[in-house]
Queue: 4 jobs
Job 1
Amino acid sequence: MMIMKKLIQLLKLPENFTGEKVVFVYHNMEILVEKDKEGNPIPEYNKISTYFDLEGSLVPIGIMGGVYYSALNIDDKRDIPDTTKFINVRHLYRTSSENLFFLAGLGRQISDWDRTFRFCGKCGHPTDNHPRERVKICHNCDHISYPKISPAMICSVTRGNEILLARGSKFSRPVYSVLAGFVEPGETLEETVEREVMEETGISVKNIEYFGSQPWPFSSSLMVAFTAEYDFGEIKIDNKEILDAGWFTSDNFPMLPTHHSIAHRLIMNFVENGKGNS
Ligand SMILES: [Zn+2]
């Protein structure tokens, strides 16, 4: 399981806070980092606060390990310090700790929600932040908007010492992973597992069991993970969402997903269970 420091989410900076502060600066899906700096590439607070106007524009995230984190969205990505650059938030997994990857992803999700819900979706009036919850309220029509979270399932399908892995058309690298898909209205998570695995690979599954969950902020998802066993069917891919799929043993794995993902944990669970030994 992941070992993560506990995050205390906050809606504002605590009064008399004297600890370290970190501001993540975003432009759409990208985050500001120091050039040529690995490990923790986030620019220091002093640099951010002298360069950007933070007054009234910071979106609080919370405190982890005594450090207060908040987020800032900027519209013009050219206006940044010389020693910094923007990279896709997802790419932090290559160089950064799991905690930083998680915080930077969460910050993007929350600040993107903050930016896109400035106006009421029902009547169009400007919204306000609720004082005690992460909610936008419209004082004109009382409509309220919570941050969007989209439930999705992710599932390992095994057949003896083999696991079903597929290459998605949206993957930027030739990675093979377990299958995943968003829950549709009216579905249970188990029904999503059955439908998605069938739609994407033509395989029927049985013995679906809960494995764990992981927030995945890049698509505002909550990934709910399951294990399942092959029941019947031959692999037949749709060539739209899935470009290739196959049964793999642990000694002939293709390129696998990032180790910060629950997909990776599902695959490692298969290996550790002994089913990976042929
Ligand atoms: Zn309204």
Job 2
Amino acid sequence: MDNIAVLSLNPALDVSYKIQKLVDDEKVHSFETRFDPGGNGINVARALKRLKIKASTCCVLAGEIGKLISNILTEELDDPHFIWEKGETRINCVIQQIEPISQYEINGMGPVMDFSVLDRLEEDLYIYSKDGLAVLTGSSPLNITYNIYYILCTRLKNAGIKCLVDADGALLSNAIKAKPFIIKPNIHELERLVKRKLTSNFEIASVALDLHNFGIEYVFVSLGYKGAIVASNEGVFYAAAPAVSVVSRVGAGDSMVGAILSVIIKGGSSAEALKLGIACGSATVQMPGTELFTMELADKLLGNINIEKIDI
Ligand SMILES: Nc1ncnc2c1ncn2[C@@H]1O[C@H](COP(=O)(O)OP(=O)(O)OP(=O)(O)O)[C@@H](O)[C@H]1O
Ligand SMILES: [Mg+2]
């Protein structure tokens, strides 16, 4: 399973501002500003690069913001491919407030996607993930049906390509019907999927196992500061996240997805994937703005993560 392609249907330019305090009706000056290409697909591609896993990124861009993103990604990623559409790529804004510490996030609206763009994207996915794996992650443009990951996953599977799906709501519930190879919902996404609260690790593990038995090879469920659970044919495992001081949570899930993939693609175990996934996720929350983990930090955390088997 060599080729990996990461889809970025709805990328964004992430602008992060650090400010002292938001004040009603007053102008606030940022004392630190960052611009980063963002969106889940791009973050997963950046995570894979840090993990030294070669991947192609198939990214839809538009307008001047799109040009800026393409310049940055051409420098940053190994094999980015851009499909250009009309309009302007969206801007997402993260505000990190110092006093009291909190984070605000505003996501912009992306352009309306032309269906010919979708066809070209699908062609690119076949080419760049041939005999390998495609990562389908993140939101879709507003005019694209919530069946999109289901359709792509079904067609890619028929072409001998495995899929990792990380999505929410109907995008995820529909995609599951196509039995992707790997899914990585967080606890909230999983609760929305099964339409009930899951209050114990045992309950979460049993839902993960049901999904695995339904036909999904690896079901990873991330639990934020509590860690994560995996169900696969190797069993069901839980590991707590290390206690770390959180600077910015942006990209934690995407770092975990990249790390999980980097282990599974090399034939590693689901417990190893869980461990590295948690280490990279927990390293990312210690980084400012949209910055992802460093391998140095993730390696340090690995020693503090212990796998527990859940007997179920
Ligand atoms: N507060 C935290 N402290 C320590 N680790 C954390 C914290 N929040 C997240 N993590 C780490 O990151 C992993 C993924 O986090 P989370 O469950 O929040 O993913 P997510 O909701 O999919 O994130 P995203 O919003 O990026 O999609 C967790 O399993 C954990 O290892
Ligand atoms: Mg997520």
Job 3
Amino acid sequence: MISFILNDSDYTTSLPPGASTLDLLRGEALLTGTREGCREGDCGACTVLLGIPVDTGTEYMALNSCILPVAELQGRHLVTIEGITPEQGLSAVQEAFVDEGASQCGFCTPGMVMSITGYLLSTQSPDLEAAIDSLGGNICRCTGYVSVRSAAGEIVGRTGPSPAVDPASARHLEFLVEKNVIPGYFLGIRDRLRSMRGPGTGDGHGTGIPVAGGTDLFAAGGPGLRDSTMEFLLNDSSLGGIETADGWVRLGAAVTVSRLISSGVFRGMGDLQGSLRLVSSTQVRNRATIGGNIVNASPIGDLAIILLALRAYIETGRGPGGSRRLALRDLYLGYKELDLRKGEIISAVSFPAHEPSRGYSFEKVSMRRHLDIASVNSAAAILVSEGTIREADISAGGVAPVPLYLSDTSAMLAGMPVTADTVQSAAESAMGEASPIDDVRGSARYKRVLLGRLVKSHFLKLFPGILDPAALL
Ligand SMILES: Cc1cc2nc3c(=O)[nH]c(=O)nc-3n(C[C@H](O)[C@H](O)[C@H](O)COP(=O)(O)OP(=O)(O)OC[C@H]3O[C@@H](n4cnc5c(N)ncnc54)[C@H](O)[C@@H]3O)c2cc1C
Ligand code: FES
Ligand code: FES
């Protein structure tokens, strides 16, 4: 049995832990305001809020209910569009949508309203750009986004800054109740959750399918997943730490992309920090983990590509034969084939901490800027002194069966001067190391040429005063 608070009511379900929260809402609880669109985390129509008790209060985040297993609801507050609608009238966000004509057929509207409400719950100082960013995972087929943006601007203006010091605090919830963003019953939720146990980590025997954020697993679905035995890694606090010590950064495998962004670990490392916002949408980033990205072994996974250029190591835990440490670049043996033993999980990832003398760059080309995986992506970390490249690490995705560390290109660059000829040779070497295939994201030829361009782009970005873009055309 899984027990939680659904809007303002206590709720218990006997659905299996791997059942989808969307199915619970629409099929069992008959709360049909949460829409079913793609069932793959791609459209945002099914967006709900999950409130998780933390030391300072309750942290709310927007999630896609279609790829959220019900096991994650235990001891938490699940909020749907019905749960933010006041008994009389509309919430402030709903009013802004009406005032700005931001809804036509209305199919996407509950998801959009939940995303903006989730954004307001997660910040004390709302701004328009971030409010629009919070809608990056919500697709509308008919209204068009201009009026949705106006509604976002309207609500940010109406809400204004919160006096609270922490968005999880009771003071912030009180502020949002005053502003009619959420109903008053939210103020009693923290006390009600206190008497409930939190979600477990599974059978504890290491025999179930490891589920971290589940964004890959549940988007792919597949027969039997719903009723499988699972290990819920996101609820294992030993996998959630972020530490910097002795010149190394160590990230627990269950650290989510959102957590990575808020931790600022990549701050000062070129455009790596900002690039994390190119990973999917807020709803997916709130669940997607580092370990899941690595083990999913998608040749175009963004985090794996960044970590390869950072010379990352992985640590394994709970596997037969104890824990191991190995270079990430040695983990990938072939398409979706990893040097991981049966039952072994990744417990952490570590990489050398930021060095001011090293330049970092990430490039991602995809069909849409947000909510899309790459056609080709690439990361670079380059150490230069006195005009000579001392160390270079370049990786590329979408050009091989695995996330690819460009070992020949990286080795070739050491000792070379930063000149247009060097960059031209690096681009040609990278294209030679790649073995892309034709697929929906582009022809093999296109991807190979694109990789050459991305390598040049790294250098142009990192050495703007030294390299002439015209010489690299
Ligand atoms: C709509 C959508 C958009 C996306 N966009 C992007 C994008 O822009 N960029 C990008 O890189 N990815 C993207 N993804 C893919 C996905 O979100 C990421 O790969 C994410 O980091 C996976 O993490 P997870 O925790 O959700 O993995 P899960 O789905 O939980 O797990 C993935 C696999 O890894 C295994 N696993 C998980 N953690 C561990 C561990 N610690 N040890 C051993 N095995 C483990 C699981 O058993 C499973 O086989 C997108 C996904 C969706 C649904
Ligand atoms: S139904 Fe499309 S994201 Fe869930
Ligand atoms: S209002 Fe019709 S899909 Fe957005």
Job 4
Amino acid sequence: MLQNEDKDLNEICEECKKEDESVTQNLIVHGYKICDSCKLSKTIFPI
Ligand SMILES: [Zn+2]
């Protein structure tokens, strides 16, 4: 059950604080803990 809680936490986007399964994928692929929407924003407007 603790693993499930960790998994849920890892799916919280650090930018918009929304839970999305893409957050985990982006963390693995890009190293950013963000959802696809925020990733798109960063791609268009890089900080
Ligand atoms: Zn986001």
